[in-house]
Amino acid sequence: LGIYGRLNCASGKRMKRRTRVFFAGEDAARAAGFRPCGHCMPDAYRMWRRAASGIRA
Length: 57
Description:
Helices cover 39% and strands 11% of the residues. By secondary structure, it is α+β, with helices and mostly antiparallel strands.
């Protein structure tokens, strides 16, 4: 499972350049099987966690 986030995220900057993938938007990243970054996108990450674990909001 990959992780997507903002271009200026400190977590993303630690990634190896050769493993980085860029998407046109969040929908494309999710469709490719990526999840939101918990550091730079905490709200989207929490919603993803709830959905992934079957917990309703």
